Predict the structure.
Amino acid sequence: MDNYSSYLKLKIKSDRKLASILDKAVNQVGQNLYDMANDALAGAERATWYLSCLTPGYADVCREQSHEDIRYFYGLYQAAHREDVILDMVEIYFKKEIVQISDSAEQSLLASVAQYFADIASERFNKQTLAYFLAIIVLSSRNFKEAVVKAITKSMGTVIGAVSFYGKVQNAALSARKLKRLHPEYYWELYNNKIEMLYHLIESEMSKIIYFIMSGSNDEEELLFLIRELVRNK
């Protein structure tokens, strides 16, 4: 499995050589210009929101935005110092889902996970480690890996000017706000870990998983089906 954390840390430290290789690999010349324009527009939009500070009755909006700015730097710090912040975010989600399933569903999940990790001793599979191994399975899927790499490249790429950087903060904030509406429990778990502003890195694929599980008539059955499909398609 790719080490997302190491990749993210290298991007945060502005490894120009790695960035150049990645840009060539995904043909980023035109894409970077497009992303820079979007970042600049988003940054300008977020900057105008601070005008609300001058408007009576909008102090809460100003405080919320200032708080998000601070939280963004908290997230970058966590990304640089955690062993694998991407894995942590996915694992946190499954930890919350697993506590709600029945014993029979848990045993079924353990059986599916054990099938995927056939080279790992069976005693390592238990309720405490189940979320961790489920997260690894999700991160090992090709679609998830590709989406995360693209998100990291876009988010941590070369920044030209404060407005462009602020656009990245804006995009991260909007993603976090969306998660807060969609799945507040998951949002607050990430928030307590100071990484909710990094959710945008996994949003494109993680939101599909959340929607899939939440849309089912039985969340437990949907979770079981999802994992079985992920294991089957490796």
Remarks:
- DSSP finds twelve helices and no strands in the chain.
- The CA atoms of residues 73 and 197 lie 9 Å apart.
- Confidence is low (pLDDT under 50) at residues 14-19, 25-34.
